[in-house]
Every structure is written in C-alpha cells, then in structure tokens.
Amino acid sequence: MKLKEFPEDIRKYLIPEPSGRMFYRCIECKREFDIDQLLYVCPSCGGLLMLHQEEEAKIQGRNGDLWRRIFDYRRMLNFNPLKGIFCYYEFIAPIIPLEFILYLGEAHTPMVMANQNLESAIGEPFYFKNEGLNPSLSFKDRGMACALSFLNYFAKKNNIKDLLTICASTGDTSASGALYSAYLTDFIRSVVLLPKGKVTMQQLLQPLGNGSTVLEMPGVFDDCMKVVEELSENYNVALLNSKNSWRILGQESFAFEIAQDFDYLVADKVVVVPIGNAGNITAIMSGFLKFLKANIITELPKIIGVQSDHADPVYRYYLEDDPSKQRFEPVTVRASVAQAAMIGNPVSMPRVIDLVREYNQAAGQKKIFVIQVTEQEIMDAMVIANRNGHIACTQGGESMAGFMKAIRGGIVSKGEIGILTATAHVLKFSSFQEMYLSDRFPPEFEVKPKKEFKNIPVLVQPDDLGGLPQAGESIQREALDLFNKATAAKIAKILHLKKR
Q1: Do 194 and 224 touch, CB atoms closer than 8 A?
Q2: Residue-wise pLDDT tens digits, 314-358
Q3: pLDDT over threshold 70, residue 472
Q4: How many Å apart are CA 198 and CA 216, to the nearest integer?
Q5: What share of the chain in percent tops pLDDT 70?
Q6: Contact predicate 288/55, CB 8 Å
Q7: What strands lie across the sheet with 49-53, from one edge to the other?
Q8: Do 482 and 469 share a structural domain?
Q9: Do 279 and 391 share a domain, yes or no?
Q10: Do residues 145 and 129 share a domain?
C-alpha cells in the first residue's frame, strides 16, 4: 500500500525520522553510558546493561489509540526498513537512520491455532507462534536484526572498515549471527564458538554455509560463553550473544506482535517460553511493560518460563517465594533435547530478577511463573504437536509440556489462551525426532518413546518377482505391469483397504 493511500491524519507518523538519544543503564549501580562505544557490561561494576531512551516520557505521552493506529497502518506499508521488527521503530531503536536498518524477512511470524483434537488433549485453547519461520529458522533473528542494524550504523558513522563479530552458541545464535553478518560482508567478519558435539548437524551447516569461521571447543554452552566474554572484554570484537543489550531490544518485538495480533487485548493471554540464556523472557517482559506504560495495552498477560530438569537454574531460584531468601546458583547441565535451552548459568539472569519484580508490581499480582518439565515430557509434547499439524522444535515441545503442567497446576485459568513459543524450525532438531520415532535415544537423555508414536519407514517389496525397478535401469512392460499390481496389492493389505 502506498503512503498516499493511507488516511491523511496518519501519514506523517508512518515513516519516522531518527530522533532522540539512547543510552546504556547498568541494572546494578544504575550508572549511565553513551552508545558511542560497544559496551556489554558496566565499566564501573560489571553489571549487565539495558538500553533506554531519553525521550521515554514523550513516547508514553502519546495517546495509546494513536500508537495502535500507527502500528496497524505501518504493517501495511511497503517499505523494507519498517517491515520487520522496526515496524515498532520508536520502541526499539529510533536513533538508527532507516537506511542502515537490515531487513532479511524476520518477524511477524504466524500464530497457528491448535486443532480441536490437540486443544481437547491439552485442556485449553492455544496457539504456537512459529519462530522457526524467521530467515535463519529461529527467533534469534529478531535480536540480530537490531544488533546488526546498530553495528551497520555504528561502523559507518565511525568509519570502521573491518569489524569482527563473535558469539557462543548452541546452534541458533551462531546461525543467525552468521547470516546477518554475511549480509554486511563488505566490512564484517563472523566467528562463532560452539561446544563440540552439542550442536545438530543442521545447525552446524548454517554458519559454515554463510562463510563464518566456526570454532569448536570442549564443554557446553556455558564454557563457550566464558571464553567469548573473555574475548569481548579484552579484544576489539563485537559480541552477538544476548549479553548485547541491542539483541534484547530486537527480541521485544515478539511481545509487540502478540499484542497487535490480538488487537492489543492480552489480559487473558498466557505466553509460554523456554528460558535458555534468559534473553528471550527478558525481552518479552520488557516489551509488554513498554506497551503498558504507553497505554497501548491496558493489562499485562501471564508469562510462563519453562526449563528442563536437565538445565533448571531459574526454576530452582524461584522455588523460594521470599525475595530476601532467593539465591541464584548455576547448575551443571545434563544432556537435553532442548539444546538451545541447555544452559546452566544464564547470562541474562540479573535482568530477569529485575524485570520479574517490576512486571509483577505493574500487574498488581504475580504474573510471572517458572515451570520445570522432564526430557520425556518435552519429546512427547513435540511429537504430539507435530502429529497434529504443527512444526514444533524441541523447545516448542518444552513450551507445550510447560503449558500442560501449568494447566494441571492451576496457573492457567479456565478461558485463558496460550501462546506457545516454538523457538526454531523442527528441521533443525530433526535428529531428535528421528531418535524418538525409531527408539534410538542414548540413555543419558532419559527418553523412551511412547509405543503408539513410533514411526519408521516400511519397505514395500513384492515377493517372488523376477524384475524390480532399479536406479538407471528400466524393467519391461509386462514385468512393470506385474510389479505395479503386486506392489499395490501389498500396500492395500498393509493399509487394510477394501476393493471397490
């Protein structure tokens, strides 16, 4: 839709000019720092940073109905810089000129309603938000679009000709970082650090295909993250993990989209998300809070974070309700099918603690919950979802398992609607689904497939036939006719088909 075709009173708002000032604020000591340097932790106390706008009061002062109209009309605008996460430009990074914004097709992912069969089995209505339909096949593209848009602006502004990006990853971050860095290959080189043997082959091939330098090391994600932190603190590299607060800003668009997709009525919604490195749940809380403060939504939805019992430090922290007694202790992770959430020491945990407190206070009641599920429950849920027409990854299975447990535990009330996060595409984790369907899970995963869900190919080969089709060889007409009849008869017997 062309700009001149929009209502006259809304046109001036649709294509914004860069404005204002943004700054980092430490969540610990509250000191503030300009964005004219690449910062990931507070130079004073080492605390994590969050990005803020100097003009927050101006944003919050605009009428909520006007904001809703801006976003709804802007979504129809055929203008690449405002098509993805930057549809919500003023709430993400309004200091970035539009010509520096990267758009690779990320965001505005579909929400697919569970069919009647699945809804009846689970107990309440819900949707899967299919983040696997982002360009690199995971939700990480939201944050990466923001982080790399800022790096594009930052580098051009400071005449930087050679910039190296680096990240630790269990697979999705590396794929996303490599993809977005490759788009800026004229001045960016990409490096990813992976735990050897802990990333699926599908995920490993993504950064390799995008030309990234892939480094593997012993250990798990937490070990890789420590090395990357050491590099980012002592060398000239741009960190792309969620410790980078630009990443958090981009991922807030997930919350904005959910609000918009439900016409900004979210009081009866329950957003379910795997926790992992805690960047996504941080962003979702922050996003909904921003929309509440700007009167775009009037109430906050419930948010449920889910963790496997093989990697559950956040769940353990919130087992204690009294904030004065809560103590965070990292855990040693065990083998998990939810590889993206297989993190024992989440980088964003201090942000989570800060935002959970603010979110519950703003809601006037407890609206943030953390649930623990088993590896068996994750895989069962993933397979059940996909047998009902979804494309849920293992983390999507984790979300559904958590939603089921929340219903049983009374956290989800009758009439509330779930929005379950499938963080990546099912094909990234097809090896786990194959192990489940063929009953080949190694014992350390503690997963045994349900008998009714086992599913492997069945060879159909008629007996006592002289000629069979072979690649590069044809069989004679009479033999072919005989083969077709015999094969069809065998299939009919397997499927219990009746003749007409």
Answers
A1: yes
A2: 999 999 999 999 999 999 999 999 988 889 999 999 999 999 999
A3: no
A4: 10
A5: 99
A6: no
A7: 32-34, 22-26, 49-53
A8: yes
A9: yes
A10: no
For residues 237 and 258, give the distance between their C-alpha atoms in angstroms, rounded to a whole number.
34
* SS3 per-residue string spanning the chain: CCHHHCCHHHHHHHCCCCCCCEEEEECCCCCEEECCCCCCECCCCCCEEEEEECCHHHHHHCCHHHHHHHHHHHCCCCCHHHCCHHHHHHHHCCCCCHHHCCCCCCCCCCEEECCHHHHHHHCCCEEEEEHHHCCCCECHHHHHHHHHHHHHHHHHHCCCCCEEEEEECCCHHHHHHHHHHHHCCCCEEEEEEEECCCCCHHHHHHHHHCCCEEEEECCCHHHHHHHHHHHHHHCCCEECCCCCHHHHHHHCHHHHHHHHHCCCCCCCEEEEEECCCCHHHHHHHHHHHHHHHCCCCCCCCEEEEEEECCCCHHHHHCCCCCHHHCCCCCCCCCCCCCHHHCCCCCCCHHHHHHHHHHHHHHHCCCCEEEEEECHHHHHHHHHHHHCCCCCECHHHHHHHHHHHHHHHCCCCCCCCEEEEEECEEHHHHHHHHHHHHCCCCCHHHCCCCCHHHCCCCCCCCCCCCCCCCECCECCCHHHHHHHHHHHHHHHHHHHCCCCC
User: CB 35: neighbour CB atoms within 10 A?
Assistant: 18
Question: Do residues 341 and 308 lie in contact, with contact meaning Cβ atoms separated by under 8 Å?
Answer: yes
Shared domain check, 369 and 464: no
The alpha carbon of 153 is separated from its chain's Cα centroid by a whole number of angstroms, namely 25
Domain range spanning residue 167? 139-243
Rounded to 5 degrees, φ, ψ at 459 are -75, 125
User: 330 and 191: one domain?
Assistant: no
State whether 350 and 446 are in the same domain.
Answer: yes
Summarize pLDDT for 108-142 with one digit per residue, the tens.
999 999 999 999 999 999 999 999 999 999 999 99
Q: pLDDT at position 12, please?
A: 94
Same domain, 227 and 366: no
Question: Could you tell me if 209 and 307 lie in one domain?
Answer: no
Residue 274 backbone zone (phi > 0: left; psi -120 to 50: alpha; other: beta): beta
In this structure, the number of other CB atoms found within 10 A of the CB of residue 218 comes to: 10
Query: Bridge partners of 49?
Result: 26
CB-neighbour burial class of residue 453 (10 A; exposed 0-12, middle 13-18, buried 19+) = middle
Mean pLDDT lowest among 58-62, 89-93, 246-250, 306-310: 58-62
How many structural domains does the chain have?
Answer: 3
